[in-house]
Amino acid sequence: MHFHRFAAFLVGAWLAGSVFMDLVATQNFRSVDRLLDAPSQQATERIQKLGGHDAARVFLRHLVSEQNRTYFVTWERAQIVLGCVLFLGLLFGMQPERFPLLLALVMLGIVLLMHFFLTPEITRLGRAIDFAPPGGSGDRTRFWTFHGLYSASELIKLGLGLALAYRLLRKSKTSQTAEVDRVHEPDHSHING
Question: Is residue 186 in a domain?
Answer without folding.
Answer: no
